[in-house]
Write a structure and sequence with these properties.
By secondary structure, the chain is α+β, with helices and mostly antiparallel strands. It has six helices and 14 strands.
């Protein structure tokens, strides 16, 4: 990456080299008016940000953009903090509850549907990655007199052309637009749980047989 030579020789370069060698770099930002340079990167598929400020000669590390877990002047201490974050993430991932869900993918240009059964970790980042979004909404809906949770991209219509063919599921006296990718799971009120094989067959039957394709204006 060109940033290597650009920052060669300074303390930011040492930080950058360490991040590049140990993690997945997403983006590197040049120095802003406050003298700060940023690196966006991934630890265990989760986004982290580290920065170096040349005026205060200090480092900051945070989860996403707001949750700071290190602030100081020692690169070695920062490395240790990042290592601890990595180990915490591995433990959390190993303990994550797995659930069986149905993933409904729709082509908004044609209305074509694909329905797949998957076993996933019940973690927010997993839903973001699976659906391809950064903000989800969960709607409770009845299918054949049983309530399920439907997980959507909450910003799909804001980010896409509204003049699209959208598959719409008709079930139990309501219609549900299936924008993009929808994850369907059992709903236990305060948590999502696995679908049973009977659930899978009933939902597939509903999705496949009770579909209207129309244009959203």
């Amino acid at each position: 990456m060109s940033s290597k030579s650009k920052y060669k020789g300074d303390r930011f370069d040492n930080l950058y080299k360490y991040i590049e060698e140990n993690y997945i770099v997403v983006e590197v930002f040049g120095e802003n008016a406050l003298g700060t340079r940023y690196i966006d990167f991934l630890i265990n598929d989760k986004k982290y940000i580290v920065s170096y400020n040349s005026k205060s000669d200090s480092y900051v590390a945070s989860r996403n953009e707001w949750d700071i877990f290190y602030f100081g002047r020692s690169l070695d201490e920062l490395k240790q903090a990042l290592s601890e974050e990595e180990e915490k993430g591995k433990v959390v991932n190993s303990m994550a509850k797995e659930i069986t869900v149905l993933v409904v993918k729709s082509d908004v240009r044609t209305g074509e549907l694909v329905v797949e059964k998957k076993t996933i970790a019940d973690e927010l980042d997993v839903y973001y990655k699976l659906i391809g979004c950064s903000c989800i909404d969960i709607q409770r809906r009845y299918i054949y007199n049983k309530q399920y949770a439907l997980v959507f991209d909450d910003e799909f219509r804001l980010k896409n052309d509204v003049s699209l063919y959208v598959p719409t599921m008709e079930a139990d006296d309501y219609e549900e637009e299936l924008f993009g990718v929808v994850v369907i799971a059992n709903d236990k009120g305060d948590e999502l749980t696995s679908l049973t094989e009977k659930d899978v067959q009933n939902i597939k039957k509903c999705v496949v047989n009770n579909i209207l394709r129309y244009r959203v204006w």
